[in-house]
Amino acid sequence: MEFGANIALLILAAVVIFTLYAGIKIVPQGSNFTVERFGRYTRTLSPGLNMIVPFFDRIGARLNMMEQVLDVPTQEVITRDNATTSVDAVAFFQVLNAAQAAYQVSDLQYAILNLTMTNIRTVMGSMDLDELLSNRDTINDRLLRVLDQAAHPWGIKITRVEIKDINPPKDLIDSMARQMKAERDKRAQVLEAEGDRNAQILRAEGLKQSQILEAEGKREAAYREAEARERLAEAEAKATTMVSEAIAQGDVQALNYFVAQKYTDALSEMASAKNHKVIMMPLEASSLIGTLGGIGAIAKEVFGNNSDSGANTTTQGAQAARKAPAKPAARSEGTSRSGSADYVSVPNHIIGNRVPPTGSR
Q: Transmembrane residues, as ranges (predicted)?
């Protein structure tokens, strides 16, 4: 009896231990288990130690809740401009709801793979090849938005979609290279033309400014010259007026001084010419040379030098100059006759002295 009781206790203990073992479930970190009772989903086991009803409950699906990588194989895509290109992509997803992922789709990864491939063809087929090559970020964003919306009923979150590579055909790559080279050559020519145009504009602006400055300088010079001529004319008019007034008052000495001064200026200008060493003048004019010594005395008397000794000397010199007869010039040397006028050659050094000293004839 005792032996049979012991065997029964051992069997009971084994059953209890087996039942406890069957009801204890340990779920690793990063995973979720679904529990089915008589084939129907009841609940989800989270990571850690969990208890189920032995012989009634069982583990249905074991799902990885971490972010997973799905490599999308290379596929051919026809773009909107009928260019065929090979596209390689990769997708990242994560299971958010274990029950939906386990019971809403049969093969989770296969479903995500096909969903990604079809949407790649749809999105990239609506774009030109140039857009595909230059707008990868836009393609990634559109694919992510479309795939995440499609996988949401499965309890899946599409975290990222990346286009790894886009490979157009070789002949198309060569055409693109030639196009790029032509575009760069065109850009270089445009830049060179713009540089030449800017340089010509700058040169024209500089020439314009120089011409403006030159014209302004000429205008200023003409203005100054006209002003000088105006002042000279005013001085001449004033001198003429003074002489006229002196004549009107009966002062003949002022007229003599004025005429002698003009004659002396004319002789000085003739003598200053570079190509004249000897000046031919009328014989009667030689008498005027003798009177040049009295011009200084006439000037002093006309302009009112009232000093006693100076006034007497000036008056005597002027009277002597007026009374002195003109000496005829000798015709032995430098004298010629043409018609009724006699001429005498006068060296330049004699004419060069506009007002020679008194009595130096």
A: none
